[in-house]
Design a protein that fits this description.
This protein has seven helices and eight strands. By secondary structure, it is of the alpha/beta class. Strands 1-2-4-3-5-6-7-8 form an eight-stranded mixed sheet, with helices on both faces. The longest helix is centred in the middle third of the chain and has 21 residues.
Length: about 260
């Protein structure tokens, strides 16, 4: 394992769920921080679910972080609370990365499942923030539409209703302006029973037809969540597409030392 700086469960808010993990490979300079958001439809899942994936990114030379946030069971009233937690986590992770010599002003946002809705919404919000540049978004198993008639599974409809509240179109990527997004990489399993792959394709077409940048890859025989274990088939298939995308949008990977070290 290459040398890296690691910081686990650093607080980024008042709630016990408000924390982040940060992984910075040795000699990673002037690169965007890849900030990851876990799935679980805001009822299940933890930030720790993406630690192995963040480690894989750091071992490939890319600084990364995973941010946890309140779930509906932990008091989140809707998407506004979850997005507020996520944004605070991004800010704190960037601040610590800057202390470690990294670019403290640019990120790539990555979501797994429902975490992709967080990534896309934050990208649209932060596009108007001069202090923080979102270079790209990677959405793995995203539900770009929050509409009931689009083939979402019943448990997904219940969750997105609570996430959206009275602001469904304001947090639905399908209804946000395509030019609100930075370059996108959309990965979707063709066996996703939560969100039909056709919705990722529909969203991709909407973005490219507006002359904005989007890349879509439908991954064979994969379900809704597939990046949590980077050593299994799904994780490897995702990394094969994610790492070249990062090389294009995050900067060149660090040339890390072969000696492992962590704090």
């Amino acid at each position: 394992m290459p040398a890296m700086y690691a910081s686990l469960k650093s607080p980024c808010g008042a709630h016990a769920r408000n924390h982040y993990d940060l992984f910075i490979p040795d000699r990673a300079e002037h690169q965007a921080l890849v900030v990851c958001f876990h799935g679980g439809w805001w009822n299940q899942g933890r930030g720790e679910d993406l630690r192995l994936f963040c480690l894989a990114l750091a071992e490939a030379g890319y600084p990364s972080a995973t941010v946890d946030f309140r779930s509906f069971a932990d008091g989140a009233r809707g998407g506004h609370d979850i997005l507020e937690d996520a944004r605070a986590g991004v800010t704190k992770a960037l601040e610590e990365a800057a202390i470690q010599g990294q670019d403290g002003s640019s990120v790539i946002l990555l979501g797994s499942g429902s975490g992709s809705l967080i990534a896309l919404n934050l990208a649209a919000q932060l596009g108007e923030d001069p202090a923080m540049r979102v270079r790209a978004v990677i959405a793995c198993g995203v539900s770009p539409s929050l509409e009931h008639g689009d083939g979402l599974a019943p448990h997904v409809i219940k969750a997105v209703d609570q996430f959206a509240g009275a602001q469904r179109h304001a947090v639905s990527p399908m209804h946000l302006r395509p030019d609100a997004f930075p370059p996108l990489l959309l990965l979707h399993g063709d066996n996703d029973t939560d969100v039909p792959a056709k919705l990722a394709h529909k969203f991709h077409l909407r973005v490219v037809e507006a002359d904005e940048h989007s890349t879509l890859a439908v991954l064979s025989s994969l379900g809704h969540q597939f990046i949590e274990n980077p050593s299994d088939r799904g994780g490897k298939a995702a990394l094969e597409r994610i790492l070249p995308f990062l090389q294009e949008h995050a900067g060149n990977p660090a040339k890390a030392s072969p000696v492992a070290a962590a704090t």
